């Protein structure tokens, strides 16, 4: 069995079924591994099934609950594709206890003056429209769970605008609005929590592509923030909904 500390079994998410987007690498991969280590059955989602198999194998080799793989290309998937994906989850697991949106795309930095309209639409689709459609498709399954949680990954540039972040920043502002509206619409039931979480600047491939001259070691590894996601997905997050949270000392605050 692996001795990697990120895969140490804890059990805070025991018996929960949790879907993680962007599970191929970076933050999504780290969150998926952390959820599995806490006893969850993780549904790994990214655009290519074969690329997810090493993550699947790592979870399985560590002795954690067997994960599942759900290929979804957020750039090209239609409403029908998201509904079909939710149906697969329903047929397999009959409910969904958690949905974590970690997939993201910020292909470049650009002035609004120069932003190509087709690229704007593509970035908005991946970072805002796709999370909306996936969430909408999964809501019936989340409502079947006794204590379900949706976590939208936020970004500081979606809470305070920053020059050159263009469509990505606009999409993240939209995510905050989507989170707040959905939280209000589901608040009375008390069975579904909806929050956003800004993990801060992390050592990821997306960050490296945007700032190639930056020392990647100047930023923390994504594994350092996964405890905050586990907190929101499990019993520790009960009572929290409609909150724009950030990671501080490993916790969501």
Automatic annotation (TrEMBL):
Pfam families: adh_short
Keyword flag Ribosomal protein: no
Lineage of producing organism: Bacteria, Pseudomonadati, Pseudomonadota, Gammaproteobacteria, Chromatiales
Protein name: Short-chain dehydrogenase/reductase SDR
The UniProt record lists the keyword Transmembrane: no
Family: Belongs to the short-chain dehydrogenases/reductases (SDR) family.
Keywords: Oxidoreductase
A GO term for molecular function: oxidoreductase activity
InterPro entries: NAD(P)-bd_dom_sf (IPR036291), Sc_DH/Rdtase_CS (IPR020904), SDR_fam (IPR002347)
């Amino acid at each position: 069995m692996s001795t990697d500390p990120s895969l140490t079994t804890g059990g805070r998410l025991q018996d929960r079924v949790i879907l993680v987007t962007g599970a191929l690498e970076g933050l999504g991969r780290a969150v998926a591994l952390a959820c599995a280590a806490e006893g969850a059955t993780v549904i790994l989602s990214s655009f290519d099934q074969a690329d997810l198999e090493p993550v699947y194998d790592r979870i399985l080799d560590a002795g954690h609950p067997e994960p599942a793989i759900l290929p979804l290309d957020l750039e090209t998937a239609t409403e029908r594709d998201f509904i079909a994906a939710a149906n697969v989850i329903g047929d397999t697991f009959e409910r969904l206890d958690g949905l974590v949106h970690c997939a993201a795309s910020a292909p470049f930095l650009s002035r609004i003056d120069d932003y190509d309209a087709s690229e704007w639409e593509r970035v908005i689709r991946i970072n805002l429209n796709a999370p909306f459609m996936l969430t909408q498709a999964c809501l019936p399954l989340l409502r079947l769970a006794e204590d379900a949680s949706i976590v939208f990954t936020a970004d500081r540039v979606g809470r305070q605008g920053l020059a050159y972040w263009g469509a990505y920043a606009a999409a993240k502002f939209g995510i905050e609005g989507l989170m707040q509206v959905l939280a209000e619409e589901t608040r009375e039931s008390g069975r579904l929590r909806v929050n956003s979480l800004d993990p801060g600047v992390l050592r990821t491939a997306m960050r490296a592509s945007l700032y190639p001259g930056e020392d990647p070691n100047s930023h923390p590894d994504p594994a350092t923030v996964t405890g905050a996601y586990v907190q929101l997905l499990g019993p520790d997050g009960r009572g929290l909904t409609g909150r724009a949270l950030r990671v501080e000392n490993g916790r969501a605050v």
